[in-house]
Amino acid sequence: MMLSQQKSAIGLPEPTQTILLSTGTAEQKRQEIRDYFIQTWELYESLFDCLADERAYFNKAISLRHPLIFYFGHTATFYINKLMAAGLISRRIDSQIEAMLAIGVDEMSWDDLDDQHYNWPSVANLRIYRNKVRDDILGIIDTMPLSLPVGWNSPAWVILMGIEHERIHLETSSVLIRQLPVEWVKPQPHWPSCNLARHDRNTVPVNEILAVKGDVVTLGKRDDTYGWDNEYGSSEHKIQAFSASKMLVSNAEFYTFVQEGGYREAQWWDEEGAGWRDFAQAEMPTFWVGSPEEPEQLKLRLMTEEVPMPWDWPAEVNQLEAAAFCRWKAAKTGESVQLPTEAEWMILRNRVPGDQPDWDIAPGNINLAGWASSCPVDHFAQGNFYDIVGNVWQWTSTPIGGFDGFRVHPLYDDFSTPTFDGKHSMIKGGSWISTGNEALKSSRYAFRRHFFQHAGFRYVVSGHQEVMAVNPYETDGLVAQYLDFQYGPRHFDVANYASTLVDIAVNNTSLRGRALDIGCATGRASFELARHFDSVVGMDYSARFIDVALALSRGEACRYVIPAEGELVDYCQVTLSDANISAEQTGRVSFVQGDACNLKPQAELYDLVLAANLLDRLREPARFLKDIAPMIRPGGLLMLSSPYTWLEEFTSKENWLGGLRENGEALTTHQALCRLLASEFEEIQKPQNVPFVIRETARKFQHTVAELTLWRKR
Question: I need a labelling partner for 403 at 20 to 30 A (CA). Which of 265, 319, 665, 685 fits?
Fold first, then answer.
C-alpha cells in the first residue's frame, strides 16, 4: 500500500497542495491557509510517532546537529519569533523556550551547539507549548488583515513562512531519525516503506545515457506560490546539447564503484572529498549496513528499520561520493561524466508537465504520495527518463547563489545568504517526503557537500564546467555599508567609531576580564575590545553580520560593493590585518546570534557591556536594560551609545525611552535612562557626544552624533 492510501485508511492528514497567492477571495484564502497550517502541524507531529525511546529525543543523531527535542519545538518557536520580529504580536508564550530553540538548525560555525548551555524541556512540556502556539496561530489566521495577492509584507506571508519552514523540518527531521540507532525508533503504519525491491543485483535494469537537446534556460521563480528569497530574480543560461542517465544511479550500479575500490582509490576524490572520506573512514554509502565484502548480506537503513538491500533503489550518498563516482565513470567510459548543473537539470525538469499545485496525482515518489522511503529507480517513468522529479533529491555541481535581483527577506536574513559561499551545492527534484515549497519546480535548496539528505544522483555527459566561487563580493546593502563603516576609510577626519568607543571604555574601568559587545554588527568593536579584555562575546540579531565577523576572524578577506553613483559601484576589500588586529586578539572573541530583547541567562558575568547604536533600534529597550543588569558584575561598566533616532518602524511609540512628552513636559532619553538605571547603576560622567560617519554613496554621507553614557554597576 502506498503512503497516501495508508494515511487515508488511518485518518492522518494528506499532504495538501501548496497555497496559491492570488486565487479566489480573501476569505477563501484565509480558509486555505488555515487548512494548510493545520495539515502541516499534524503531519509534523505524526513524524515523531516514529521515536520509540526517550533517548531518541535527547541524544544527537550527528554531532553537528541538535537532538530531535530541539527540532520538535523549534518549528513552533519559529512562528513566535518571526511574528514578534514582524511586530504582529506583542507578547511571547515562553521566552525561555523561544530563546533556547530559536537558533542552531544548520551546521554553521556560529551555532551554539555546546550542550552545557541547554537544559532541554521535556517532551510533555513541549507538547503543551506547541498546543499553545497552535491555538495562537489559528487565532491570528482568523483575524489578520488579508488582501490578495499575498505578498512579502502581508501578515499571511509570515504564517506561510512558518508553514513552509515546518515542512522543511519534516524532511530534515526524518533524516535525523534515520541516523539514530535503529533500536530507538519503530516503524509506523502511517509511514510505510516501499515493498517493491529487487534483492538480486543481476536483475536490476542497466542504466543508459539518453541524448538531451540544448536550450536557453531562464532560472527564477515565476509561479504564484510562496517562495524563499533565493528563488526570486532571474538568471539565463545557454546550455549546449548533453546526455543524461535514464535513471538515478541505483545501489547496484553504485556497488560496482565500491567493488572496484572506489573508496580506496585517491584518484577519484578531490581534496574536499578525500578529507571527508578519511575523516568518516567511509568505505561504502552511510546508509548501507554490513560489509561491502559480503554484498548478499548488506542491508539498507531506512527511516525506522533495516531491510535487505534493495539493489534497484537509488544510492543515497553525499555530493562528494556522487562526484567521485562520476570521475570513476568518466575514466571507465572515456567520456566527460559529471553531475548535472542546475540549468541542465531544469532542461530535464521542463520535460515533466505541470507543477505541484496542478497535480491531481503526483508524477513520482514525491509529496508523500508514494511511500515513506525510496522505491525502484525504474518505477516512475517521466517521458523517456525516470525520477526527474521525486524518489530522492539529486545532487548537482552548482554552488548556490542569488540570481540577478536577489533580495534578502528582512524577517529571515539568514535563510540563504550564509550558504552563498561556494561550499553548498544544489539539490534538485525533491524526495519522497518533499512537500510544499520543496516539491515545486522553482525550489532551490543547497547543503554542504558532505551533508546527507534523502539524496542520490543521476549523471550527465557534458562539457560544461560549473565555477565554484568561494569568496563572492558582498552585495547585501546593509552588510556592505557596515563593513565600510566599521573597517573602511575615515571620512571628514572623523575617527573610527568602534575604536573611539573602546578607548573611552578602557579609560573608565580597570576591569579587564569579560566583555560583551551587543549589537556588534560585523564585529569591529568586539575585535578592538580584545586588545584589552581576556574574553569578548560579540552578539547580534542578524546572522548575516555574525557570518561576516566570523569570516574576518578566520583571516579571510571580505569583499563588498558600495554605491558610487547611479549604477556605478566601488569594489572594496577588508581584512583584520588592515586594521592591525592580530590572530591573538581574534582568538579571544566569540560570536553568537542573539536577541537583545530575549537574552539567555549567563552563568558568568561581564565586566563591560557595550551597546552601541542599539537602544533606538530595539522593540523593547526597557526590557533590554532590565535583562542586561544582572549580567554585569558589581563594579562593571554599562556603556550606551545612541543618536536616539526613535522611529516607530523599529520601536512602537509606547516603548520609546525618551524623545516625547510626559505629562506635557519634554522627556529626553538621558532623563529616562537615569530613571531606569538608578536602582542598580551610577552614572560616572556626564554624557558626551561621539560623532560617526556612514558612507551611502561616493558623495553622500550620514554624519551623526551619538550620545555616550557610562554607568557603573553598584
Answer: 319
d(CA 416, CA 420) in angstroms, rounded, equals: 7
| CA–CA gap between residue 117 and residue 127 (Å, rounded) | 22
Nearest-angstrom CA–CA distance, 646 and 589 = 31
Q: pLDDT digits over 191-233, tens only?
A: 999 999 999 999 999 999 999 999 999 999 999 999 999 999 9
Q: Closest by alpha carbon to 131, among 11, 38, 68, 55? A: 38
CA dihedral 108, 111, 114, 119 (to 10 degrees): -140
**What 3-state DSSP class applies to 643?**
coil
Rounded Cα distance between 461 and 338, Å, is 6
Looking at residue 664, its pLDDT comes to 87
- C-alpha–C-alpha distance, residues 374 and 316, integer Å: 9
Q: Look at residue 474 in the predicted model and tell me its pLDDT.
A: 61
Rg, the chain, Cα only = 27
CB atoms within 10 A of CB 181: 11
Residue 528 contacts residue 499 (beta carbons within 8 Å): yes
Instruction: List, in sequence order, the alpha helices (H) in 267-318.
Output: 271-280
Cα–Cα–Cα angle for 671, 677, 680, rounded to 5 degrees: 150
Sequence-separated (6 or more) residues with CB below 8 Å from residue 654: none
Distances (CA, A) of 372 to 25, 87, 191: 35, 39, 5
Please tell me whether the peptide bond between 149 and the residue prior to it is cis, using omega within 30 degrees of 0.
Answer: yes
Q: Report the Cα 87 to chain-centroid distance in Å.
A: 22
Cα–Cα distance for residue pair 65/711, rounded to 1 Å: 40
Q: How far apart are CA 294 and CA 681, in angstroms?
A: 72
Backbone angles phi, psi at 489, to 5 degrees: -70, 160
Point out the residues of the chain with pLDDT beneath 70: 1-15, 104-117, 468-475
pLDDT of residue 408: 82
pLDDT computed for residue 12 by the predictor:
47
Return the amino acid letter for 669. Answer: T
CA 576 to chain centroid: 27
C-alpha grid cell, residue 512? 579587564
- Nearest-10 crossing angle of helices 477-487, 543-553: 40
Give pLDDT, residue 9: 41
Residue-level pLDDT at 477:
83
C-alpha cell at 423: 561550499
Residue type, 202: N
Please identify which residue in the block is written with the cell numbers 562520476. 326
Q: Which domains does the chain have, with CATH numbers?
A: 3-184 (1.20.120.450), 201-461 (3.90.1580.10), 477-713 (3.40.50.150)
Cα separation, 39 vs 12, whole angstroms:
9
pLDDT of residue 8: 46
Alpha-carbon gap, residue 448 to 583, rounded angstroms: 27
Q: How far, in Å, CA of 283 to CA of 294, rounded?
A: 13
In this structure, which amino acid lies at residue 183? E
Given this model, what pLDDT does residue 102 score? 86
CA neighbor of 259 nearest in space, from 285, 221, 227:
285
Instruction: Please give the Cα distance from 150 to 224 (Å, whole number).
Output: 10
Cβ-proximal residues to 379 (8 Å cutoff; 6+ apart), any chain: 196, 365, 386
pLDDT at position 182? 97
pTM for the whole thing? Answer: 0.82
Note the pLDDT of residue 422.
Answer: 85
Report how far residue 42's alpha carbon sits from residue 705's, in angstroms, rounded to the nearest whole number.
53
The answer to whether 99 touches 599, Cβ cutoff 8 Å, is: yes
User: Please, is 661 exposed, middle or buried when counting C-beta atoms within 10 Å of its C-beta (0-12, 13-18, 19+)?
Assistant: exposed
Instruction: Return d(Cα 66, Cα 76) in angstroms, integer.
Output: 16
Residues 121 and 129: beta-carbon distance below 8 Å: yes
